[in-house]
Amino acid sequence: MYALALATDYDETLADHGAVTPAALEAIRKLKDSGRKLILVTGRELPDLKRVFAEHEIFDRIVAENGALLYTPATRKSRQLAPPPPPKFVNRLRKRGVEPLYVGETIVATLVPNETIVLEEIRDLGLELEIIFNKGAVMVLPSGLNKATGLLAALEELELSPHNVVGIGDAENDHALLRTVGYGVAVANALPTVKETADRSTRAARGAGVAELVGLMLDKDAALMDTERQRVEVGADAAGAASVISPYGGCSLIAGTSGIGKSTLATLLTERFFKKGYQFCVLDPEGDYSHLENVVVVGDADAAPNLREILDLLEKPTNNVAVNMLGLKTDERPDYFARLLPELASLRARKGRPHWLVIDEAHHLLPSARVGNSFALPNELPATILVTVHPDLVSKDVLQKVEVVMALGPEAGAVFDSFSQTVGVDGPKGIVPLSEQQILFWDRASGRPAKAIEVDKPKQARKRHKRKYAEGDLGDSSFYFRGPDGAMRLKAQNLMMFLHIAEGVDDATWEHHLRAGDYSKWFGGKVKDKELAAEARAIEDNEQLAPDQSRAAIADAVRSRYTGTTG
């Protein structure tokens, strides 16, 4: 379930001339029984609403006074979201004969054409207030306060994202509401400008229109909400046509040879998720995403990520999480992920998020050597991005859920071949060579052919600070050659000093640190160079190398990445 809540206006939307019909009430009861939340967002004052709508307690939250007051019917507790109106302002309106005049806990309301007097008094008193129109009504509220801000306060209490909310309204004060929710609807009787703001309009008016929308939510759920403004652009072809991925779609695969830019593309997509307000979670076996902005990193090279901490963080819709698995041994990571995935699936079922799941090194976390049941895979993996060098080593059960393939580099054609052979489908034809800024994008779910698209670089670049690590002083992050008996303490405060000392230490000392994996740990954990760490780890694991050979191999790996590039 993705569409988890309905936010509805009251007058001339849910209500017909102030009253809710039995049919409309029955429709929202049915929606509530489906496990979804109901939020009423109205310009009315709360006592007035209670007077005209006795069944208001069916709602989980009521946003009254056009966003200024939040009420919880289950507890009968209300919370002001803004200060009360200035008494001097109210008194001057009364003295000038403004009638009718309604004064709530925050809102001041009247009818047209009194807006001229209201505006004069706001200006003369120098108040930070603004006027919001609701057809013939004139509502005065603190600047920046509206139905959208009130709805967001309600959603914060309910731990829901606006992306998982469908909203419906009819008048000027509903524009902000309809723009904020994941899917905005105007009833048939709505103002023309409101219909322009909405993603769709109902055929029926008022309460019958709400009942119509409820039927669509129950029947289509996420499919109802798949609109252009919710999709995420990956890039565009030479003609400017955008290629997109959808939060309501299935898996996407990013694949290509090592070092070709897969994590760079994944980083770009996380930036776009954040910009659109989507919550995302990155499963990061090698610590490649700990640099991401706007994320909370759980785990590091010294500590395995705590499952409860991850889930607690994701309970809040505004938290994005990168799960750093460096603290786990390579062969422990698939089992850890097998425990985490059902928890994420459960959170998605309850809260509709994280909206996007990025799984790096997917061939390690979802290897083909394991059967699908061992992953406790959900029937679908919506909005999941798999990043891998080896599509053929990813579980076939998982690959069959892939709807979009993004291939990078000169071996892009081989990526499509590997994927197609693994899942038993025909791959795209006519693969063309790519430029450095291009990827091949194949939306196989749509049946359209693959095409080359231009892709931007992410704004946040990975910063290795080469001069610092090559020639600076790393202080507490320095490497110490101690030897097998711990009798030595030779400090290498940077990479160049590390190479200098490495040339002079005895074979026993060199081999002691090599077999303990100390070099790769230092490169990855302190130098923050995961690629160098991976190269070193391969050398450490090669027991056929003599000490002078492993020394030379480590030195070559360091120099190839840092010598000549530090100036």
Describe the structure.
The chain is of the alpha/beta class and 567 residues long. The protein folds into four domains: 1-77 and 146-230, HAD superfamily/HAD-like (Rossmann fold), CATH 3.40.50.1000; 82-144, Hypothetical Protein Ta0175, Chain: A, domain 2; 231-454, Rossmann fold, CATH 3.40.50.300; 466-562, no CATH class. 35% of the residues lie in helices and 19% in strands. A nine-stranded mixed β-sheet has the order 17-18-16-19-20-15-21-22-23, with helices on both faces. An eight-stranded mixed β-sheet has the order 5-4-3-2-1-10-11-12, with helices on both faces. A hairpin with a 7-residue loop joins strand 22 and strand 23 (451-454). Helix 17 (507-515) packs across helix 20 (547-562) and helix 19 runs antiparallel to helix 20 (547-562). The longest helix is centred in the middle third of the chain and has 19 residues, at 333-351. 44% of the residues are buried. The model has no long low-confidence stretch (mean pLDDT 88).
The CATH homologous superfamily of the largest domain is termed: P-loop containing nucleotide triphosphate hydrolases
Shape: elongated
The CATH topology of the largest domain: Rossmann fold
CATH-derived architecture of the largest domain: 3-Layer(aba) Sandwich
- Classified by CATH, the class of the largest domain is Alpha Beta
Organism: Aminobacter aminovorans
InterPro entries: AAA+_ATPase, HAD-like_sf, HAD_sf, HerA_central, P-loop_NTPase
Protein name: AAA+ ATPase domain-containing protein
GO molecular function: magnesium ion binding; phosphatase activity
